[in-house]
């Protein structure tokens, strides 16, 4: 198993963060350790010892296309998943995985996250509406609002296209496929898996589609794991470059779901504008919402060093303390190098996504499901998907030592300091770890933080 050196962040006096990573208060048995210690993260035993990594994909999701017929006008198009599926075949990875059949999410499953109105508006097409209560449906459909897009097609907003014949089926297929894969992994029938699905889901709120998203597939999967399999604790990691506003909304007061998002924020000036570090959850869920909100624009862009630092200093320590039963990933690849500035502009490598995947595999007894979200440069999303599936299969492709030791940029350090300070104040996951021997056990990241 790959080990992860988890640095502790120590106060630097008046200019720095006065607290760092320590123990999770509810888990008093856990002791903090010197910053130089290399931790092997514990695994829960899988009862059935499953051996198979699984993939799920269905061609029905290709039919969600703008009626204008011009993919060049739409960054979220069928070629995204088609290219990924072909790449996995070309590299021989599909043959090493078990492919499971996708399925449409039921209306009941959709309503575990979304309102009935939202589900009937966007989860039905002319054919299956014949089976529903026409009186209720007629009233709801009369409220549906569409916009004419510059390309000549139709959308629910300027970005999110609508195809009356195919969008509802594709969206339900994406959600249902993620649910099916998550169920089989959670039950121990499969080891882990990757859902090659579209349209994406993490921007979809309980009653609003947006940002190419209609149904929040990962949130629906988490709800179904809670309701039908009684899964106690679920970690959702969202590394799409855009904040998952929909997922945050759904679980904001739920302490059984730990949501951690790494996203470009730029003080709220990057879409969707949500995801501030001080959005920490509410009521019983306070402290269970963690936003690693990168600020500073693209000067310089965030890359491998910054994402590795975030995992070392925030994601993995908090996740380890939470001790989830299942890990779900909103695996958007628009932080990958190659995506244009308006849609990302960062420079995370495919190897780094592989590294992040391997770290998450050390949690929850390896019960890990990745579901595709964003990412619009075809080469970048194919490279990243290939790297993540390879990691799930146990194929080692380690990052060079110089990358692992590279210092994160100053903007990233500031962003991480902010997150750690805010989360430390919650006293649910992070508490002060200043000790007399801290200075002699300081990692590269700590030294950077101490010098700021």
From TrEMBL:
One biological process term in Gene Ontology: epigenetic regulation of gene expression
Domain Histone deacetylase: 74-392
Chief subcellular location: nucleus
Keyword tRNA-binding: no
Domain of life: Eukaryota
Top-tier EC class: hydrolase
Protein name, per record: histone deacetylase
């Amino acid at each position: 198993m790959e080990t992860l050196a988890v640095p502790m962040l120590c106060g630097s006096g008046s200019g720095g963060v006065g607290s760092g990573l320590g123990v999770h208060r509810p888990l008093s048995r856990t002791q903090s350790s010197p910053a130089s210690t290399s931790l092997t993260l514990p695994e829960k035993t899988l009862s059935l010892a499953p051996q198979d990594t699984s993939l799920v994909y269905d061609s029905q999701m290709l039919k969600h296309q703008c009626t204008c017929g011009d993919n060049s006008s739409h960054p979220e198009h069928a070629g995204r998943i088609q290219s990924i599926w072909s790449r996995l075949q070309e590299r021989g990875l599909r043959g090493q995985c078990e492919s499971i059949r996708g399925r449409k999410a039921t209306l009941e499953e959709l309503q575990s996250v979304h309102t009935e109105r939202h589900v009937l508006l966007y989860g039905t097409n002319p054919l299956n509406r014949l089976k529903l209560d026409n009186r209720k449906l007629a009233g709801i459909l009369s409220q549906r609002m569409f916009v004419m897009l510059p390309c000549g097609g139709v959308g629910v907003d300027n970005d999110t296209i609508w195809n009356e014949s195919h969008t509802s089926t594709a969206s339900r297929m994406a959600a249902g496929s993620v649910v099916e894969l998550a169920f089989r992994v959670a039950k121990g029938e499969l080891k882990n898996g990757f859902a090659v699905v579209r349209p994406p889901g993490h921007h979809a709120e309980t009653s609003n589609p947006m940002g190419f998203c209609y149904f929040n597939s990962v949130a629906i999967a988490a709800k179904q794991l809670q309701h039908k399999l009684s899964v106690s604790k679920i970690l959702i990691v969202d590394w799409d470059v855009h904040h998952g506003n929909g997922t945050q909304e759904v679980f904001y007061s739920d302490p059984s779901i730990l949501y951690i998002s790494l996203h470009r924020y730029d003080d709220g000036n990057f879409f969707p504008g949500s995801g501030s570090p001080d959005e920490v959850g509410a009521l019983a869920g306070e402290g269970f919402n963690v936003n690693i909100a990168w600020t500073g624009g693209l000067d310089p862009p965030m890359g491998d060093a910054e994402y590795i630092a975030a995992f070392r200093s925030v994601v993995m320590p908090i996740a380890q303390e939470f001790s989830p039963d299942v890990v779900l990933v909103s695996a958007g690849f628009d932080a990958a190098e190659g995506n244009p500035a308006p849609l990302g502009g960062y420079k995370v490598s495919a190897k780094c996504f592989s590294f992040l995947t391997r770290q998450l595999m050390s949690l929850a007894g390896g019960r890990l499901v990745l579901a595709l979200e964003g990412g619009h440069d075809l080469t970048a999303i194919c490279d990243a998907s290939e790297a993540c599936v390879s990691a799930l299969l146990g194929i080692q492709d380690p990052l060079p030592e110089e990358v692992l030791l590279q210092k994160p940029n100053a903007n990233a350090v500031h962003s991480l300091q902010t997150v750690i300070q805010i989360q430390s104040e919650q006293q649910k996951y992070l508490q002060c770890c200043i000790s007399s021997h801290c200075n002699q056990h300081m990692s590269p990241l700590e030294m950077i933080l101490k010098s700021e």
